[in-house]
Design a protein that fits this description.
InterPro entries: ABM_dom (IPR007138), Dimeric_a/b-barrel (IPR011008). By secondary structure, the protein is of the alpha+beta class. The protein is built from six helices and four strands, in the order βαββαααβαα.
Length: 133
Amino acid sequence: MTTLLAHIKIKPGKAEKWEAIMADMVEKTFETETGVNRYEYWKGQEENFYYCLLSFEDKWAFYRHQISDHHESHEFADVLADIRLEYVDPVTGAGGGLADTRDPALPDDADEGMAMAQERFPLDIAGWWTRRK
C-alpha cells in the first residue's frame, strides 16, 4: 500500500479555482481508476492551505493516478504556490484499516510512464517505521 499526506499552499485568490479542480479530480479518480482506497481534500486553518490524504493499494496505483489524463490535464501551476508530499504509515491498530506503506522495486518490464513516475515520486520510507512494527 502507498499512503500520502499532501501539504498544499494555494496562490492568493485561487481557492475557488483550486476547489473546482479538486472536485473534478476526485470525481474522475473514482470513476476511472482502480486501486484507490482514500482520496480526500481538506481545508486547513491557515488561509489558502489544504491537505490531501491519498491511499492506494500499491505504489503502482499511485503512479497510475499521477500520470492519468485527468491529473495531467489541469493547470496546477496557475493555482499552486507550493506542494509537499509526505509518505505516511498507519499506526498498527489505529490506522483506519490502511495497510503499511511499501516500496517494491520497479519491475524490469515497467513501461515508460511508470519509470517516469518512479523517478518523480520516489517513496520515502522512514527507517524508524520498521523498528516500530
